[in-house]
Amino acid sequence: MAEVICMPKLGFNMDEGQLVRWCKAVGEEVKKGEVLFEINTDKTTMPVEATGDGVLLKTMLGENEYADVFTPIAVVGAAGEDADAALAAYGEGAEGGSAPATPAEEENAALVATAAEAAPAVDVKDLKLTPKAKKLVKDEGIDPASLKDIKGTGFRGGITAKDIKASPLARKLAEKSGVDLATVAGTGINGKIMKADVEKAASAAPAAAPAENPDKKILSSVPYKGVRKIIGDKLAESKFTAPHLYFTDAVDTTNMTAFRKQMNEVSDRKITVSDILVYAASKALQKFPGINSSLVDGNIVTYKSTNIGVAVAGDNGLIVPVIKNVQEKTLTAISEENRDLVDRAKEGHLKPEEYSGGTFSISNLGMFGIGNFTAIINPPEAAILSISSVRKTPVVIEEDGEDKIVIRPMMNIQLSVDHRLIDGLLASQFVEYMKELLENPLKILL
């Protein structure tokens, strides 16, 4: 019997996925365990394997297109089998609430039968809701009875979150008139946006300002969604939820450069500045564990493990692979793990567990010649350390009781902290200890 393949849910916060490429063509034979397609999740590109043998009969999603999780995107079955019949049977099975055949379909149990109109009461289970719509109903306390007459636009008539927030006619009118539904107050049941609401917003909107340059040509235009939107939403939430406080100091890298050179003369693996920074940060976090903390469900949680993330700009956007339990590893082991994680992060091939679970992050733009910058905290962590480039700078030193101006290779470091959890004194102590370790790197090994 043909199997309907759905967009899988590969992360707790994953609501939709982007299909990167099909690894099999329609009509091509598929073996169990072979990679059928690749998708972009919230941070990385993940291969999805076929769960059985057969032929790829049909695909319903093009490459680089998006689909909600659990939405059917392909059918695999025996050669000559009717893919549309399989889809129809799948839809009927979902509407009838029958036991699904795959784990993905089990999680899609929200797609159940619409209750009869004559029923005296309507329960969430009686409605054919997508997972995102079901969560919206629960989070906002929406009366299920108010949804029973909605004509869903999802798979097989499933009610989506967009159907609940705005009527189909209101959405079409908003697209045509350029009205942002996020700015419209709905007057329908439970605040649903109706056609009249969009018309009112459109008439009240000021006339569009003339283009700054009528001859301006657009190089490209892509939807603000997927990885870029996830990164933006996450950092915006961090910036506007956690009050950021910043602490900056300059580090003389003379001794660190000499230390790294000596290490590389005896080490089988090349030690990078990033490796030293991770190792020093772990030692500093052990000395000042208050920095190694998070705000979780109203509790300030302080961690014993120093799980340090290193921000990397990959093909799919910013990602922060995490080196777990740095305090238990040697500098050489950290170097090996760091190189592997960074290489795969740039290719977009990290597993979800490899970019989650961090307790502290480092963002190093020194290799790009940046003199100074401010990093946004990576939630739910409480702090992030930004590293700038090394520059020859005149500094004042004391020698034989006299002040002298000398040229030294200086590097700015800046600690961004969540002021709800971390006070200025603790942050200052951490920064000064990091400076001490980096200017006297032998202390890192002690």
From TrEMBL:
GO terms for biological process: pyruvate decarboxylation to acetyl-CoA. Residues 128-168, 165-202 form the Peripheral subunit-binding (PSBD) domain. Keywords: Acyltransferase, Lipoyl, Transferase. Residues 2-77 form the Lipoyl-binding domain. Its cofactor is (R)-lipoate. GO terms for molecular function: acyltransferase activity. Its EC number is 2.3.1.-. Transmembrane segments: none annotated. GO terms for cellular component: pyruvate dehydrogenase complex. SUPFAM superfamilies: CoA-dependent acyltransferases (SSF52777), Peripheral subunit-binding domain of 2-oxo acid dehydrogenase complex (SSF47005), Single hybrid motif (SSF51230). Belongs to the 2-oxoacid dehydrogenase family. This is Dihydrolipoamide acetyltransferase component of pyruvate dehydrogenase complex. It comes from Eubacterium ramulus.
